[in-house]
């Protein structure tokens, strides 16, 4: 059997783009996804882009019997773990759902990996593990905390992984702390397609530009930022996917930095651009890219949101030889291309 990368949540926004780059780099990919916020047809788009269809299994990471069978029947070399719920607002309203899906699901996955002696894991974490930023830009040494159940679930998982590594230093683990993924594949065949009302800014903006929604809601204009709206580090999803490929290659090819006594590795790495854009700056950039007005209403702040958040990317450059290459103009243009294709 050929070595295979198991990608949980691989039909989702970031998972699908990463699968494309993994396949283009020569990896065999098996996607496990419960399709709670994605569509199995994404695998067809991946096949069109790469010329190869990933293996796909519809299932849940909380299904231990299924995971046991997957590891028994496939030569899994490593796991890239995206499967998880990811909306801050929803997590505040439904915290138990997030603890069950994200934490219990990851625990079940780790048990199956341990049983199968597969000890290489790339985890989809988040900048929310930094809580309220005490200093900017955020480095990987910033104290960890959480301001909402979603962020707390990511923080608990990172702590779990730390203890797993401490108990068995043979594990090779990388926690990739994302900032704000946006954009789409340049083909326009895959992108961000949330079900229902989007929880993230870019897809909501694009739906307003496309006439699918009347206006955008801007949550808060009284933050201590230049224009009063929240500032975030938006990163193109293709740059983010490239960061995953670089991290996986690092885990699968140990460097001289790994000691002989401890063949494993535990890395925490930010993936961002190193600069922030406000909500109003994003609206202006989207209006320019789409050639359409983006009307909006100012609404009260959302619980759990922070004023500003952007990354220091020096460590990613050092350990992964990676940096983001695409700017805001391309993020908006690619997202708009995908939105237009979705409209037919």
Structure commentary:
- This protein is an alpha/beta fold and 344 residues long.
- It folds into two domains: 4-182 and 235-271, Rossmann fold (3-Layer(aba) Sandwich); 201-231 and 274-312 and 326-343, Alpha-Beta Complex (UDP-galactose 4-epimerase, domain 1).
- The protein contains eleven helices and 14 strands.
- The strands form four sheets. The chain has a seven-stranded parallel β-sheet with strand order 3-2-1-4-5-6-11, sandwiched between helices.
- β5, α6 and β6 form a beta-alpha-beta unit.
- The longest helix has 22 residues, at 95-116.
- The protein starts with a strand and ends with a helix.
- 48% of the residues are buried.
Provide a compact summary of the structure:
The protein has helices spanning 13-24, 42-50, 64-73, 88-93, 95-116, 149-167, 201-209, 237-252, 279-290, 314-320, 328-343, and strands at residues 4-8, 28-33, 55-58, 76-81, 120-126, 172-178, 180-182, 216-219, 231-232, 234-236, 265-271, 277-278, 296-299, 308-309. α1 (13-24) links the parallel β1 and β2. With 344 residues, the chain is α/β, with parallel strands linked by helices.
């Amino acid at each position: 059997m050929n070595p295979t990368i198991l990608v949980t949540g691989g039909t989702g926004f970031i998972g699908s783009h990463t699968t494309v780059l993994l396949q283009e780099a020569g990896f065999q990919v098996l996607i496990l996804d419960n399709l709670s916020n994605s569509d199995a047809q994404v695998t067809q788009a991946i096949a069109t882009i790469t010329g190869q269809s990933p293996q796909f299994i519809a299932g849940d990471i909380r299904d231990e019997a299924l995971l046991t069978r997957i590891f028994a029947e496939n030569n899994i070399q490593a796991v890239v773990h995206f499967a998880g719920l990811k909306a801050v607002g929803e997590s505040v309203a439904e915290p138990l759902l997030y603890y069950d899906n994200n934490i219990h699901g990851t625990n079940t996955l780790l048990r199956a990996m341990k049983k199968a002696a597969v000890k290489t894991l790339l985890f989809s974490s988040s900048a929310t593990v930094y809580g309220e930023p005490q200093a900017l830009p955020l480095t990987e040494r910033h104290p960890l905390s959480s301001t909402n159940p979603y962020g707390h679930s990511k923080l608990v998982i990172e702590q779990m992984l730390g203890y797993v590594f401490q108990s068995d230093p043979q594990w090779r683990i990388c926690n990739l702390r994302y900032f704000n993924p946006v954009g789409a594949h340049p083909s326009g065949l895959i992108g961000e397609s949330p079900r229902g009302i989007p929880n993230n800014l870019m897809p909501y903006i694009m739906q307003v530009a496309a006439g699918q929604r009347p206006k955008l809601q801007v949550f808060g204009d009284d933050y201590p930022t230049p224009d009063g709206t929240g500032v975030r580090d938006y990163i193109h999803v293709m740059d983010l996917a490239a960061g995953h490929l670089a991290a996986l290659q690092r885990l699968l090819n140990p460097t001289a930095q790994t000691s002989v006594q401890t063949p494993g590795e535990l890395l925490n790495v930010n993936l961002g651009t190193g600069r922030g854009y406000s909500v109003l700056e994003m609206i202006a950039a989207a209006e320019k890219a789409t050639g359409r007005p983006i009307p909006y209403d100012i609404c009260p702040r959302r619980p759990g949101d922070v004023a500003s958040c952007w990354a220091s990317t020096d460590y990613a450059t050092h350990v992964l030889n990676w940096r983001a290459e695409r700017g805001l103009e391309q993020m908006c243009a690619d997202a708009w291309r995908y939105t237009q294709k979705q409209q037919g």
